[in-house]
Amino acid sequence: MDVVAEKKNGRRNYAIVTMAYWADTLADGATRTLVLFYFSQLGYSALQVASLFLFYELFGVITNLCGGWLASRFGLKSTLFLGLGTQILALAMLALMPQSLLTVAYVMVSQALSGIAKDLTKMSSKSAVKLVAGDGEGQLYRWVAWLTGSKNALKGVGFFLGSLLLTLMSFPQAVAVLMGIVGVAMLLAAVMMRGDLGKANKKAKFSQMLSRDRRINLLSIARFFLFGARDVWFVVALPVFLSTVLGWKFWQTGGFMALWVIGYGAVQAAAPMILKKKHGGNPDGKTATWLAFGLALIPLTITVLLVNGVQPTLAVVGGLLVFGAIFALNSAVHSYLILAYADHDKVAMNVGIYYMANACGRLIGTILSGWLYQIGISSQTTGGLIWCLVASSIFLVATGLISLCLGPERA
Q1: Residue 198 lies inside a defined structural domain of this protein
Q2: What is the CATH number of the domain that holds 286?
Q3: CA torsion, ordered 21, 24, 25, 26, to nearest 10 deg
């Protein structure tokens, strides 16, 4: 009975962690859109807007490096509540400060806290999947795909929510609404959670963060290039392009990006069914390889269409939809492989080092997105986006080449 009760509490706690992760993801996506559009509206350049998220990504790298060790030493429950509390603090900085004093440096600090909060809650939730689902054939793959897909769908809802809130109310009021969402989730988690989630290991050493498993290290490097390839054109260049070059209103840009991320999340959640016919079972390194090389063709195709004078709206929007679907499958495969490769006793550490690489890719992608767009826009209207698309293709080819080294063996 004790074993049954333990499993029941584990699943209950996992559901609560997932709910808290969803709330944090919703607020995080909305905040990102609020900050991007608000400062773009004030006349900031693409590079200046990108700099606002610099600390967000940089501290995400640091958090993933240290977060796995903290979770192993103090337990996933501790890192979950630390993440939610940090998110509330970050939002309070934006909501309570007079708008005239919202300088770039101040917002960068707030975004740094948001990056810490987001990665602490993500690492807690992703690690919990391994603990609850175990290594059962197919179950881990399905649960990871569902968690990752639902999270990204909610992030898309957050994009739309942020745009809508900025349209209906002031910036501080919009941020206050997001504070309420995270605060309620934190309160519910505190009241409903039973016991701990996983066991704390007081003897866990920080030096153990670096994995000795070749597959985990290779997958982490591949993840770096995969997410750098996405963010180099999606984070700053795309929304600025849609709003300034194509003349879309904020709610239209935010709404489209929201629908894109929601669809992207839906494809991720359905990845086990979509890839089953092609692969016949759980994915492996070979699956990640052909998906990466196939994805590299999409930004390259969009570039060719833009250079040859194809209507930008058709080329960019159509290409983005295809890119999102294939990227979602690739990301779902990566998310499964890291947990399948991970040592059960060191899952938080393995996940931490993997998502540190993920955060590094987002950091480089964000910087390049603003920088390449700004230097390219001076040459022609679509030049800024084209530079970003070419960089995306290069990153994806690198992802495919690294994935080749993972081999076809099952995790």
Answers
A1: no
A2: 1.20.1250.20
A3: 120
